[in-house]
Amino acid sequence: MVVALCLLGVVETSAAQQPPSTSQGGRGGRGTGESAGVARLRVFDQAAVDRGKIVFGARCASCHSPSGRGGAAFSGPDLIRSVLVLQDANGREIGQYLKISGPGKGHPDFHDVTDAQIADVATLLHRDVTYAAERANYQVLNIVTGDPKAGEAYFNGAGGCNKCHSATSDLRGIGARLAPVAIQGLIVSGGAGRGGRGAPGPPATNDRGATRATITLPSGETVTGVLVRLTDFDVTIRDASGASRSWLRDGNSPKITVTNPLQAHIDLLAKYTDADIHNLTAYLVSLK
Fold it and tell me: What CATH superfamily is the domain 36-137?
């Protein structure tokens, strides 16, 4: 895959993370107590990484995003998954590519970028590739740092959580049943995607978290069920009997009303502060 390193704009990259300080046990470490994965995160020259951040932020981030991962809002591809970057050695392949690219090929002019600067950017990218590969070595620290009382106030007040949930009903004992990190995940997702990889099809008809659709036919008849598929051309639901039913769509006919019981969680994503999430987590953890 040919990948351009678009070098425009002055945005400092946020791609860098800090490696975990230690790992208990693990596959390597040679007497250090670190896992082999964590040890691999420490082989990168931090000074080169820091210099690479500056160059990347000033010359690359506007096309490839500050994280180097691209995205819908950026014209450049994801460099962390780039074959060119993965096959690069000390900036050599990246440098060779930059020398043959330029304005004539729809890319910025890189003639003023030195070999040393390219090597620093390569070090940054290789370090971030390693972070992605070794993400399983990260340790989840204590996240119960909020104020339970403030969390309870948010639950019953600004958050509106009590409109759908109850500390004495569906959430009773949640602090004893689930780990804090799982509780915090449920706060954000509402339980969406709990099936994970390989989960069979749409949710069951009795799943309270399932998205449902009501189909109003031209005759006036209405049919409601779990939404299985909705496109511009057709809609499929599974009714209460478990049977799948489908209709072709012609504009707004039949009329379709979609109800997502997790919509409140989605709406809160734009409103949560860090304190809200930590306080709410602390409150739910206290429900033993």
Answer: Cytochrome c-like domain (1.10.760.10)
